[in-house]
Design a protein that fits this description.
Blueprint lengths: L34 E9 L10 E4 L2 E4 L5 E7 L1 E2 L2 E3 L11 E3 L2 E2 L4 E3 L2 E2 L4 E8 L9 E6 L2 E7 L5 E7 L2 E7 L6 E3 L3 E5 L5 E10 L4
Parallel strand pairs: 1-9, 1-10, 11-18
Antiparallel strand pairs: 1-4, 2-3, 2-6, 5-8, 6-7, 11-14, 12-13, 12-15, 15-17, 16-18
């Protein structure tokens, strides 16, 4: 029962289960935590919060709200935190941070996500699809992404910002590709652009 204009402690001797100590409404905590918390805001290039972005780390998974905020418990130490894993939202790139989490404390880790898209294509021997063929996408002389063809000879290079990429298969000694490279532009966020078909000859063994 709750009495008007008085303080009622819960639990107490009248609750089920009853509090162990009569007239003692506090407890001393003597265990040590081995985990911490990570919190942050996921924003776009205009510094606006992004709703519905998955953030994963240390076995936990959270989704940002309308304010772009996520909050989750993780183990103490260096933890890999992934925002938008595997481009779950194809309009943005994936980002990975490795903050050091202190036990019992809240660590702030924000994520500014750039706009992103994907390049797809097909690799064949000329008669059959070529599986397990590595393909790279380069921009400005640096590799920006890579993929390996599936059993059907198809590849998808994800997590790419907008721009013009040079796509090429990674050849072994004795192999040749036609064409050797294909230039393709990603013009908008979340787009999926088909690069074309590479035909690989030689060194199949």
């Amino acid at each position: 029962a709750v009495t008007q204009n008085s303080i009622t402690s819960i639990p107490n001797a009248a609750t089920t289960p009853a509090w162990l100590g009569a007239d003692l409404y506090h407890v001393q905590l003597n265990s040590t935590t081995v985990s911490g918390f990570v919190k942050g805001v996921v924003t776009n290039a205009s510094n606006q919060p992004i709703n519905g972005i998955i953030v994963q780390g240390g076995g936990a998974s959270k989704t940002t709200g309308s304010n772009g905020v996520y909050f989750m418990p993780v183990s103490a130490g260096v933890v890999s935190i992934v925002a938008n894993p595997n481009n779950t939202n194809p309009s943005y790139v994936q980002d990975i941070k490795t903050p050091t989490i202190s036990a019992g404390a809240v660590t702030i880790q924000d994520f500014p996500l750039g706009l992103g898209g994907r390049l797809t294509g097909y690799v064949t021997t000329g008669t059959t699809p070529l599986a397990s063929q590595p393909v790279t996408a380069n921009i400005g002389g640096s590799q920006a992404g890579a993929a390996t063809t599936d059993a059907g000879g198809n590849f998808t290079i994800r997590n790419l910002s907008t721009g013009t990429y040079t796509v090429s298969p990674v050849l072994e000694s004795g192999q040749d590709a036609s064409p050797n490279t294909i230039d393709k532009e990603l013009t908008s966020a979340g787009s999926s652009v088909f690069v074309g078909t590479f035909t690989i000859a030689g060194a199949f063994g």
